[in-house]
Amino acid sequence: MTLTAPVFRVEKLKRRLSLTLVVLYGLGVTIGAGVYVLIGEAAGQAGIFAPMAFGLSAVVMAFSAATFSEFVGRLPLSAGESAYVQFGFGSRMLALIVGSIVMLAGIVSSATISLGSAGYLGALFAPFWQFDRDVLVILILLLVGVIACVGILESVVFAAVMTVIEIGGLVAIIAGGFLTQPDLISQLPSVVPHSLDGAIWSSVLSASLLAFFAFIGFEDMVNIAEEVREPERTMPRAIFITLVIATSLYFLVAAIAVLSVPIDELAQSDAPLGLVFGAVTNLPPATISAIAIIATFNGIVIQVIMASRVLYGMADQGTIPGLAGRILAFVPERTGTPIIATTLVSVIIAILALNFDMSGLATLTSQLILAVFVVVNLALVHVKWRERTGLSEPAGAHIFQVPFTVPVLGAVLSLCLLVFGH
Hints:
Layout: H1 19-32, H2 35-46, H3 50-74, H4 80-89, H5 92-125, H6 133-150, H7 152-180, H8 184-187, H9 198-212, H10 218-221, H11 231-260, H12 263-268, H13 272-280, H14 285-316, H15 322-328, H16 339-353, H17 358-388, H18 405-420
């Protein structure tokens, strides 16, 4: 049997995105969904070793990032994970399940970030006006839905500008920390455990599942592959650039946070980086709160784009059949975006955000994505095994490819974090 890639009936989406915009897209979703929202939660679980939790999560993420980088070259399609699994195992049902999990993860992630965004927004305006959190969440999601429907280039350019601002906030914390407290450099080794104490590593592993949420992003990137110029070359490079930058920023910001602010205060704060920013710079905490609002809002925009593209992609590829598929695959010529899928995604996000807490949603998102990583890595193992044994034709030399052991380790590490990271 020869493996064949799922194909679109009609190419509706437009290839308008460059490497720079894709990297900024990836950084926007990872950073906006990560350290701005969850640094306090991670510190509450792992204490001073919270930076190590981010480092451990990055290691797990790296192997799956390599797997996705190969798959996106083979199949530069929306609903990437769903297409990868169908290509690897030849099962439309498994593809539908995986695609649905990815979409659900994006929705749950957006609900998580919307709560974080509302928290920062409420903290910023608290001295002047008390806003109900639920009202803030609804207003945020209404605005996000409109932006996501306008057009992919407009949406991603907006996200790129917001990403530059949010990265600036993290760089300000890092620079402020090292400039105002030079001894922090000598204290950096203390954030890494120097023993094999089971209790310490148990807390780090537990926090890693939460910190893993902060790295969710590159799998979102593959879902806009059909709107990227030269995706076979652009996407692998963008994935690894995003992962390296995000890991560096996360580790340094987390280290400065746990070394500059009492752990209890950090864990209990609704705007944790506001505390850190105030401790390491001479600027008011409201400055970083404003940046955090931009970062979290940006993260929601990008997650809504991703989830709607997954829903659209499954519908357009026939994974979602019948009338429902035709409706969800509708793309108006004027906007070039799947507006019905985007609207449905936004409504579901609002329902989740208004009924669940942030930590629980973040953990659920991580678990869903790790489960997807296990299946996608195994799909590439199966593809490579068939090519190695001559049962199918090998991929072209122009496609980015990884050794056979990479998806094997990606599956094993993802499964270990999923099972033991509680």
